[in-house]
Amino acid sequence: MILFSKRNLHYTDYKWNAYLYNDPRVTGKPDDTVFTKDEGNEVIYLINKLMLMWDYRFANTGNKMEKLIHDKLPAEITRQDEVQEWLKVNLKF
Predict the structure, then answer these.
(1) Averaged pLDDT, 53-78
(2) How far apart, in whole angstroms, are the C-alpha atoms of residue 82 and residue 63?
(3) Burial letters for 27-54: b for 16+ Cβ neighbours within 10 Å, e otherwise?
(4) 3-state DSSP assignment of residue 52
(5) What would the mean pLDDT of 30-59 be, rounded to a whole number?
């Protein structure tokens, strides 16, 4: 189920690379796969995955995640699982 898509993105400065169907950067569970915060497909994938895992249903929650990733994600956080943990701590409602 897609809860958050390209049309929901607040920022427009993403790169848009093509990925193979089963590329771990855009499939599966968040793990130790490298995460690129300026790659739109990776951002959308991770937001959707976390919204499903955490049972969030509204696009504005995805926007909050996107803004945190885009504006505040520390440079030393470079893996999907690290982004997940960082968002868990920093996502406030």
Answers:
(1) 95
(2) 19
(3) eeebeebebebebbbbbbbbbbbbbeee
(4) helix
(5) 95
